[in-house]
Amino acid sequence: MHHQWLLLAACFWVIFMFMVASKFITLTFKDPDGYGAKQESLILTAVTKVEEVHVPEEKHWPEEFQPTGKAFSGNLIHQPLVHMERLELLRNVCRDTALRDLSHTAVSKFVLDRIFVCDKHKILFCQTPKVGNTQWKKVLIVLNGAFSSIEEIPENIVHDHEKNGLPRLSSFSDSEIKKRLNLYFKFFIVRDPFERLISAFKDKFVHNPRFEPWYRHEIAPGIIRKYRKNRTETKGLQFEDFVRYLGDPNHRWLDVQFGDHIIHWVTYVELCAPCEITYSVIGHHETLEDDAPYILKAAGIDHLVSYPTIPPGITVYNRTKVERYFSGISKRDIRRLYARFEGDFKLFGYREPDFLLN
């Protein structure tokens, strides 16, 4: 009997050690950035009884990384409610007559050129530069069948619209455009408007990683000639010059000269006409880790493709950076800039910057 108990205890010990080892292996090899993978066990149906839903503890970012949009739960079980609130806010602001000039635009060829089409899965994606759109274009390229996986897509192909297999909505007839706008799943991504402008300035006038010389050699000199106060300075385009240009009520005369290059800093309203087109989902760059898998699930493609891995911290709003860029700029110029982008702030739940209130 004594030997039987010893044998039984040994069996339990072996089983226990096996469970511990299995758990260790799972934790060790689990991909910490695997948010884009298919999440079979997550409940993604609309929450109808809000009072019964347990809301997890709100994320607390360090002070310099405070999100400026609505603070929503990162738990995917609440995502349908999050996106319903975003769309409801959008509808309410669109109805505000005081903001009509800032929230409405015609569905012109300029807008239709920004919208990419995936007929196979009935998806429309409106491109809003400087919010991670390159990755979404890769997702659609794979879905359209031009490449079998995101990893196979050469970087130089993503933005080559002759080779990437992504048709624009403007390439269809009026009746085909209307049909797609009425029936397809439609989405786009936004981020804090001022942080987006900083990103555009750095990408096009400071680093210029894609080597687009016209930004430094044609657009920058045009802005400097018109908006630099001290004409004796010979340094390149400064953020102050850029802000003064963007906030000028008469900026359009330069926009015409710059052509479609302005898509990197024009408003979301001008790019995607959110009050005229009924979008299915509007993602936020600040919550992209949650929004990306939700969009894939809502579009019915989560089993076919995953959103590429997001480097840690890259989507978090950096308040310190924004305040640093605007610290040397006059309140007058900042207010004029905000006046132009106020529609974007209000439509998508971004609050007015603190340095405008002080």
TrEMBL record:
Membrane topology, as annotated: Single-pass type II membrane protein
A Gene Ontology term for the protein's cellular component: Golgi membrane
GO molecular-function terms, A-Z: sulfotransferase activity
SUPFAM superfamilies per record: P-loop containing nucleoside triphosphate hydrolases
Enzyme class at the top of the EC tree: transferase
Lineage top rank: taxon: Eukaryota
Endpoints of the signal sequence: 1-21
EC nos: 2.8.2.-
Keywords: Carbohydrate metabolism, Glycoprotein, Golgi apparatus, Membrane, Signal, Signal-anchor, Transferase, Transmembrane, Transmembrane helix
Gene Ontology biological-process annotations: carbohydrate biosynthetic process; proteoglycan biosynthetic process
Subcellular location: Golgi apparatus membrane
PANTHER family: CARBOHYDRATE SULFOTRANSFERASE, CARBOHYDRATE SULFOTRANSFERASE 10
Family: Belongs to the sulfotransferase 2 family.
Protein name: Carbohydrate sulfotransferase
Species assigned in the record: Malurus cyaneus samueli
